[in-house]
Amino acid sequence: MLPECQLFGTLGCHLCEQAEAILLPLVEHGLMVELLDIAEQEQWMDDYALRIPVLRRVDSGAELDWPFEAEQVVCFLR
């Protein structure tokens, strides 16, 4: 079973849109990804403003910073 994940990004971020496109096939195969806008919390802005998009595993808290490809995401989820 795939771990639940969060994708930190923000509106109008073209890199975030690219990350979503990479994740879409995995979502179609059962990956649950919650999209989180860093503008919603000051702490997220502090933590992620210079790093987005960032994929975070809910179970372990492990983070995968951009840039990433589908193969890297698959390894990250194992």
From TrEMBL:
InterPro entries: Glutaredoxin-like (IPR008554), Thioredoxin-like_sf (IPR036249). SUPFAM superfamilies: Thioredoxin-like (SSF52833). This is Glutaredoxin family protein. Pfam families: Glrx-like.
